[in-house]
């Protein structure tokens, strides 16, 4: 529905905790990010064409994860790979997407 799936959001809420991902400091307006120097590749699957998600919807789920979650903790998103529409994809298309995902993971 344009944002992160509930299971992913719940996972991030349980993993990116104060003391691990960020630290509150007395007298400071914003928490200190503790994962500075870490990077991430974002892979989004969707049933919306990626161009429509990016240009019409303005990629809300991508912004939510990259800016308000990862960047808050100091993680720098490097590359985003948007795959879709999955619902009408063919087997060769899904195999191509898996190949793209593998290549992205090997760049680390």
Automatic annotation (TrEMBL):
Keywords: Oxidoreductase. The keyword Oxidoreductase applies. It comes from the Bacteria. Residues 2-102 form the Flavodoxin-like fold domain. Gene3D superfamilies: 3.40.50.360. GO terms for cellular component: cytosol. GO terms for molecular function: NAD(P)H dehydrogenase (quinone) activity. Belongs to the NAD(P)H dehydrogenase (quinone) family. PANTHER family: NAD P H OXIDOREDUCTASE-RELATED, NAD(P)H DEHYDROGENASE [QUINONE] 1 ISOFORM 1. This is Oxidoreductase. It comes from Rheinheimera nanhaiensis E407-8. The lineage of its organism: Bacteria, Pseudomonadati, Pseudomonadota, Gammaproteobacteria, Chromatiales.
């Amino acid at each position: 529905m344009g944002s992160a799936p509930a299971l992913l959001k719940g996972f991030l809420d349980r993993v990116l905790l104060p003391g691990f991902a960020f630290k509150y400091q007395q007298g400071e307006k914003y928490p200190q990010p503790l994962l500075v120097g870490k990077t991430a590749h974002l892979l989004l699957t969707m049933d919306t064409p990626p161009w429509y998600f990016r240009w019409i919807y303005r990629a809300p789920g991508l912004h939510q994860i990259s800016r308000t979650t990862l960047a808050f903790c100091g993680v720098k998103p490097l590359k985003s790979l948007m795959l879709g529409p999955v619902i009408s994809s063919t087997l060769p298309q899904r195999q191509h997407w898996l190949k793209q995902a593998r290549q992205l993971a090997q760049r680390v």
